[in-house]
Write a structure and sequence with these properties.
alpha+beta, Jelly Rolls, Arc Repressor Mutant, subunit A, 4-stranded antiparallel beta sheet, 39% helix
Length: 257
């Protein structure tokens, strides 16, 4: 007798079969960001076979935490995350914001996770068991090269954060933040000049090494200068060229009247 298909409930409260939660890279709108261009269909299918499941997370739900043993990488299918570390004094420092098409968990390949990852909104990830992924690297060299590129980009990102917090003026830090978000949304086919800030102003300040009051002042200042438009969390870049010049350090803010 055929056994009934087990069901779980997703955030919309509609029953979803476990088979339906099995990820399919070829059908995913973000697969060109996760996977190397030109990967053969047969190799994509082999990757499909090692992906464990899609995992749904609600807003503020933790994906993994610092000190937890490393088992999986996580490819973000939709939604946004933040990663942060907590020091001995119990103070949190946000280390990054992640969105669809990006990988989470690479910090832990050496053994244990070095940060917490929390969903900023209802989100979904693909779980990729790393031991099985390593086996596939030996069979699909293009996938290994692509993974090395991703790791290189992650190292560069961390170096840029250090530079951001160490040497840049407050307005330059904020311009870099906006320009970076713009480029990442553009790569995903979204508007580069109009997007929502999924993170709170407090989180932005924590990431940039600024107080929440400083973030609010910078938003007001950029708005008054005519560079951006702000409607709650919706931000529109009115003068992207100016913001890019600020971010590059080739231009500065004029003093406020």
């Amino acid at each position: 007798m055929t056994q009934p298909v087990p069901f779980i409930t997703d955030p919309s409260k509609q029953p979803v079969s476990i088979q339906a939660l099995k990820a399919s890279c070829s059908a995913c709108s973000m697969h060109q960001l996760c996977l190397p261009m030109g990967l053969e269909d047969a190799d994509i299918n082999r990757l499909d076979q090692i992906i464990g499941r899609r995992r749904r997370l609600e807003k503020d739900e933790r994906l993994y935490q610092m000190g937890e043993p490393f088992r999986n990488l996580y490819a973000v299918r939709f939604g946004h995350f933040k990663t942060y570390q907590v020091n001995a004094a119990g103070e949190a420092q946000i280390t990054g914001f992640q969105m669809a098409g990006e990988l989470l968990g690479m910090d832990a390949i050496s053994g244990n996770h070095h940060c917490d990852a929390v969903a900023l909104e209802d989100s979904e990830v693909c779980e990729i068991p790393f031991t099985r992924l390593e086996e596939l690297f030996g069979e699909v060299p293009a996938l290994l090269r692509h993974f090395h590129r991703i790791m290189s980009q992650e190292i560069t990102r961390e170096q840029n954060v250090m530079l951001l917090l160490g040497n840049m003026r407050a307005e330059q830090r904020f311009a870099v933040f906006l320009v970076n978000l713009s480029a990442r949304y553009a790569a995903r086919g979204y508007s580069p000049n109009s997007f929502q800030l999924r993170m709170s102003r407090e989180d932005i300040g924590n990431y940039l090494g600024l107080t929440i009051e400083s973030v609010s002042r910078l938003l007001s200042r950029f708005k008054k200068q005519g560079w951006i438009q702000v409607d709650k969390r919706e931000v529109t870049l009115l003068d992207p060229a100016k913001l890019k010049a600020l971010a590059a350090g080739t231009d500065v803010c004029s003093p406020m009247a």
